[in-house]
Amino acid sequence: MLTGAVVAIAVTMLLALVRALLGPSVYDRVLAVNMFGTKTVLLLAIVAFVAGRDDYLDLALAYALINFIGVLAVLEFFHQRKFGHVPQVANGSDLQPPENEATPSEREP
Amino acid sequence: MNSALRFAILLAALVFTWLAWSGLFKPLLLGLGVVAVSLTLWLSARMGLLRREVFALDLTPRMFGFWAGLLVDIVKSNFVVARIILSPSLPISPCMIRLQPPLPGQVGRATLANCITLTPSTVTVDAHRGVFLVHCLTRESARETLDSDIGERLHRALGDR
Amino acid sequence: MSWLDWVSAVLATGGGLFVLVGGIGALRMPDLYTRMHASSLTDTLGSMLILLALALQAGVSLATLKLGAIGLFLLFTSPISSYALGNAALLSGHEPVGERLDGEGGE
After folding, report:
1. Per-residue pLDDT of chain B in tens (161 residues, 90 and over written 9)
2. How many domains does chain A have?
3. Measured between CB atoms, which of B78, B122, B125 is closest to C41?
4. Residue A93 located in a structural domain
5. Is A104 inside any structural domain?
6. What are phi and psi of B135, to 5 degrees?
7. Are C85 and A34 in contact, with CB atoms under 8 Å apart?
8. Interface with chain B: mutation pick from A55, A91, A95, highest number of B CBs within 10 Å
9. Residue from the list C51, C62, C85 with its beta carbon closest to the beta carbon of A31
10. Are strands B95-99 and C99-101 parallel, antiparallel or unpaired?
């Protein structure tokens, strides 16, 4: 009954891997890895039902969390080219946008 | 809603989540739960998540109406994008549009930007200084995004946040 | 099979189809920004339908609550990572294909 969904998800994971290998830019690869991670979450949820073990749902939720944080961390790394950059965060005052930062349209030549 | 009530709502939600997920009532796990909930509450207060403008758990019927409308939009544009991908000629006409959201507050703008991204065929790629740069898959989706009243609907649901 | 099983099977297969179409789109689309649209296809209706099918199977139980939490979490995080990806690509000078329409108005 869930066979169709499982096959579709597995094929999509393969397609995402092909996209990750083809690239061409690093952002395409990050997109593909993100897709792969989301499909893993769905697959884990289905496995929880096929195997009759509800604790796999906890794994799925944890994987969704790790996938999300991982993608943000990788993007931050490629943005800064290093980890450990500390933004100025104090008591939520980071909600105000900095005034001296250029918008991307201003940065363009 | 005052700040004590917001604190109580968040506390209740966190305690319920812990109990539902662990499902065990041994002293050790309950103790760990107390530690985790206290830590989360402290971090939330420190990050300013309990302020009126930011607090997201005071759900109003209008907000549910907005989510339902957004769900309809998402389903519709899912079918549109699926048809585009499956047609052999791949009839896309990608373009960027600049959008001035009709929302005064930061929370409203952030929500609107995420709602636009969540709908397939439109992705917000920049939301600097309250002007959105939206990438659209087709000219029709660009036209629909510019004509859409989703910003006004969100404004009515959220207020001036 | 009861009618609930049939509804659940139809939903799961439909969700699988959307996921597959999204995967095909990620391969067919010409550049990064258009691929992001295909990826959001798999993240929204694809996951929602599959999780809904599983929730119908589970009935009213803790598993349904967890499935709802997974679905909500995916719906909240996928636009944020899309935005982070698109914004990082844009700031690094990744130019989208197609033209740029400015202003509120027109073509």
Report:
1. 677 888 888 899 899 988 888 877 888 888 999 999 999 999 988 888 777 777 766 677 778 888 888 899 899 889 988 888 888 888 888 888 888 888 777 888 888 888 888 888 888 888 887 788 888 888 888 888 888 888 888 888 777 77
2. 1
3. B78
4. no
5. no
6. -90, 125
7. yes
8. A95
9. C85
10. parallel
